[in-house]
Request: fold
Amino acid sequence: MEDHHGSSSAYLQLFMDEATLYNRIVLGSLLPMKLWDPLPHFIQSWVRNCIGGTLIYFLSASLWCFYIYYLNRNLYFPTDAIPSNKAMLLQIYVAMKAMPWYCALPTLSEYMVENGWTRCFSRISDVGWPAYFVYLAIYLVIVEFGIYWMHRELHDIKPLYKYLHATHHIYNKQNTLSPFAGLAFHPLDGILQAVPHVIALFLVPTHLTSHIALLFLEAIWTANIHDCIHAKAWPVMGAGYHTIHHTTYRHNYGHYTIWMDWMFGTLRDPQARDDESKVM
Reply:
């Protein structure tokens, strides 16, 4: 029993060492680590996540805005459909108010992993590549299912919509949606929609680094689906679908794919809407 406990502690230390490495890379690039070391490990990880989340948000949204609104100014949108700088600054303000709260979730998930409460594994070699991809696929299905229903209930349960989700749905026209709107949520709303990522850690063996990467990929993905450009890449729940969600409020709750909306009867295809408009 003692040997098992010792080996378990050694394995959990791998998670702690991994988080410490990330902290030193991010925090140490700003200030000498001796200035960060007095802070508890949990706080260091939270500050690192805040810095990482903020950088990813600004880089992904800024580069995408520059590409679609300036380099290709007349290719994707008429001038009156481009969001104003004032609208985008408001979205940035809302996102930045929520960012410290958003980043509490990956910090909490790391804490639970480091204490052995989840089914996470540290190294892909612990399970092998075939099992890794099977587990990752199951993880993504859980996330897809969970985010679909969380998002749908944020609409269907009226107090949740009124006090949480309505903050995001003030962006309901093409000239108010922009990549910066991707994280412009009430803090609790953003956390609730990311909670399926954490629930999955208790249901399926998950590679910790992949989990953290997928959480931060959310910032890039949400920037993409709020740009109003329909890429027509089946079965991806791209911006064309998500723009319909912002205009009808009752369709296309899904995250990465259209499958959950198709299964539960809430899918509305932007191509079909375009065809209807041409007939009318």
Q: What stands out?
A: The chain is about 70% helix and 0% strand. The longest helix spans residues 41-71.
